[in-house]
């Protein structure tokens, strides 16, 4: 026994020595720091090229334009925005796009579901659906300007079946819906890819079990696929909303130019007009701040509602 103690004690002393502990710490520290080192470049880019310019823009929105350039004016720019009927139209159109957002998410979601369930020709459809996403907004706008012209092929087809022509881009009550529909068609391919990636994480046995129990397709989608893709749906909702509110400038510029009568103005187009044509950067900064706040509120509300709906299911 004594011999055994003598053999064990030196090893115990060596493993519990301060030198061994320091060596273990030195081995662990690089592993703990690795995630922070990998994330640091992205964080620096966000801080330097996103957050800092955003703060500068918010600060600039409280200064004046023209003769009052650089002079603090408080909330004068925001008050002028609220008095401007064109900006109010732009905010109304934001509300319209928010109402159309579920449609913009449901279309790629349903198409991704059919592709996941291996409908005939799924590979061909996948390519066709994604193709519009690689086209420039200028090209898309030019194509639909020809298709939707008053004497264009779409109205000619409607006239052939007795429905009569429609002024798709000249009617102020229709133009915004038309541009929004074109934007959804041109961009749903990216959301489709995200949904397909989400389906890759879905447990296929749940769908097979639901089918075995005799569940209809609608029940499978609502009770199996939607809960299983809740986080993917949240992501697509937020990114689609951001795209609809900040990426329609090209279509608006080519298809309507903000008309007719300002009916298709969105905040981003209003910002460009004030900054690029009216030379009012402070007012444009105020409009940018309002747009950011609207996106933040709508995005948080959407995430909250989707999480609540998922918990109830």
Q: What features would you describe in this structure?
A:
It is a single chain. With 313 residues, this protein is mainly alpha-helical. The chain folds into two domains: 17-60, no CATH class; 85-312, MetI-like (MetI-like fold, Orthogonal Bundle). The protein is built from 14 helices and no strands. The chain has helices at 2-15, 18-60, 76-83, 85-116, 122-130, 137-147, 153-160, 175-199, 204-212, 217-228, 230-246, 249-255, 267-277, 281-312. Helix 3 crosses helix 14 (281-312). The N and C termini lie far apart (66 Å). The model is unreliable at 1-14 (pLDDT under 50).
Features:
MetI-like fold, 14 helices, 313 residues, mainly alpha
Task: Detail the topology: elements first, then pairings.
Blueprint: H1 2-15, H2 18-60, H3 76-83, H4 85-116, H5 122-130, H6 137-147, H7 153-160, H8 175-199, H9 204-212, H10 217-228, H11 230-246, H12 249-255, H13 267-277, H14 281-312
3D shape? globular
The third-level CATH topology of the largest domain is: MetI-like fold
The structural class is mainly alpha
CATH homology group of the largest domain: MetI-like
CATH architecture of the largest domain: Orthogonal Bundle
Average predicted local confidence, pLDDT: 87
- Counted beta strands: 0
Low-confidence stretches: 1-14
Distance between the termini: 66 Å
Q: State which percent range the strand residues make up.
A: under 5%
Largest sheet: none
Radius of gyration: 28 Å
- In which range does the helix fraction lie? over 70%
| Number of domain modules | 2
- The protein's oligomeric status is single chain
Q: According to CATH, what is the class of the largest domain?
A: Mainly Alpha
Q: Summarize the helix and strand pattern as letters.
A: HHHHHHHHHHHHHH
